[in-house]
Amino acid sequence: MLGHKRSSHVREYGLATGLGALFGATNTLVGHPFDTVKTKMQAQAGFSGSMRATIARIWSTEGLLGFYRGCVPPMWGSAVYRSAQFAVYDLCHTAAATHAPLRRRVDPLGVGCEMELRVPVCGAVGATARTVLESPIEYAKVRGQTGQSWRLAEVYRGAGLQLARTGPMMTLYFCLFDSCKRNGCTATPLGQFLSSGLSALVGFWVVWPFETLKNMTQAGIGGSVLDKVRATPGGVFGLYRGIVPGSLSVFLRNGAAMLVMAEANRRVTAWGLRD
Name one GO biological process term (predicted). Predict the structure, then answer.
């Protein structure tokens, strides 16, 4: 994603998979504590207060390990689905370079920020690949964070909401990060951290209600989407519960993960693993 010269498709796919896995593992290590706070505020009875009160309760009842409850599924799973996300995007983006219609410049965000059509298209393809792998892992994570066991027959519970959340979020992330890269914002480590963290943050803010509804569904809260909205304190505005710890988690983990991925990219090139 940072503009290195492309080698063979097979080798590049393998490198993108490995680098994406590193991105995913770092993402979980850095962001899981705040993600746990967010999930409890969204989907667990007794945790509907402020972020500060939720953190205090987790600390007093479960200690430090409570913030990493449910981290095992996303620890290995994040490496899997994020590697798929970047590898599929990278492969699609490279293959689309030979198709003139996909090289046409468009402004998908409508803010005067032009990019090649292949960026949003391949972003959507990568996001869909991620969703297929991510949904069972997210289900297991949410169940663990809310102190519940998970069942194999339910691993795709909330998958529709997962796609509604991940598809637009990741497509927007790839578009925004591509714009940052083309405008020279990723030339320094700080620029890479801010570009990735802020791109992910904007994407998450756009789909935040779907994140809350997904977590409620995966935590076992029944009823239709409309029923959940009606049952949520504050209605539609209540769907933004947990947005502060969630935003901290998204920004920090995606910024840190991009730094690790960029450094790994540099080393891969220095070791001659790219042509």
Answer: mitochondrial L-ornithine transmembrane transport
